[in-house]
Design a protein that fits this description.
Blueprint (H helix, E strand, L loop, with lengths): L7 E3 L24 E2 L2 E2 L5 E3 L13 H20 L2
Parallel strand pairs: 1-4
Antiparallel strand pairs: 2-3
Bound molecules: flavin-adenine dinucleotide.
């Protein structure tokens, strides 16, 4: 079954199992998500939270994840608002 979505947030933590993104061009040669500050390179409606070193050392901890989540939420809201 396939469904059209506008945005996806993958909160897959410090041990993500995201092999299925490889064929979509979203993983680097080490199998890690290709992103900038949590926003996927290939798909601007796809975002991550909780990845190790997503933005800083604290990204994969309770101390830093909220700040990263706010950032991607702002980005995704702007993405959705585009005509
Ligand atoms: C030993 C250890 C100690 C830690 N101690 C602390 C601490 O003291 N303080 C602190 O703030 N942080 C600590 N952390 C970091 C801690 O992991 C995070 O703070 C917290 O667990 C992050 O929650 P999360 O929901 O982002 O990720 P997680 O708790 O990792 O949850 C992500 C979930 O997504 C699942 N998942 C992954 N890929 C997929 C997929 N493709 N489809 C569906 N599900 C998927 C995973 O199996 C997992 O269940 C520690 C980590 C470790 C390993």
């Amino acid at each position: 079954m396939a469904e059209e979505v506008d945005t996806i947030v993958l909160a897959t933590g410090y041990r993500p199992d995201l092999g299925y993104l490889g064929p979509l061009g979203d993983l680097d040669s080490q199998g890690r998500p290709r992103h900038r500050d949590g926003i996927a390179h290939a798909h601007p409606g796809l975002a991550y939270v909780g990845l190790e070193w997503q933005r800083s050392l604290s990204s994969a901890s309770l101390r830093g994840v909220g700040r990263d989540a706010q950032r991607i939420a702002r980005h995704l809201a702007a993405h959705l608002a585009r005509p």
